[in-house]
Design goal:
InterPro entries: ATPase_V1-cplx_f_g_su (IPR008218), ATPase_V1_fsu_sf (IPR036906). It comes from Drosophila grimshawi (Hawaiian fruit fly). Helices cover about 45% and strands about 15% of the residues. It is α/β, with parallel strands linked by helices and about 150 residues long. It is built from six helices and four strands; from the N terminus they run αβαβαβααβα. Helix 1 packs across helix 3. Helix 2 links the parallel strand 1 and strand 2. Strands 2-1-3-4 form a four-stranded parallel sheet.
Amino acid sequence: MSFDTIVNSLSESKEEGSDEDFDVLVAVEVEDPTVMRIGVIADTEVTLGLFLAGIGYHRENFRNYLMVEPSTTLGELETFFLIMYKGGNIGIILLDYPTSKRLAHVLDKCKNILPIIIILPTKTTIMPYMEEKDRQRRQRMREAYT
């Protein structure tokens, strides 16, 4: 059974945002159960950068990444995230900030120690934060000299 078949069957069988999100169990064939992989759900730019670092993994029935585009539905995101979260071979899940905002209601339910979920800032989300930090630093310097 291919990954796309699993995603289509799962997204058709459940309503979006239902409480049955964590009832989804998918059998993923693991080549070596001692190997923990890093999963990626992010936009194309972030995902390609992580591919260059060697994170990408793709086999017939499993891949550890999802390139999120504006046309990617919330159901596809939730299903792929839950497959990685429930799979026993993922140790870290990397999400970019916009994707984590879309999956906030699912992330609130995640209580397991593994996999570790890390939210990565992107160029568009880090700039407002950095500008605010710079403004606060300038304000503190002004107050120190007055």
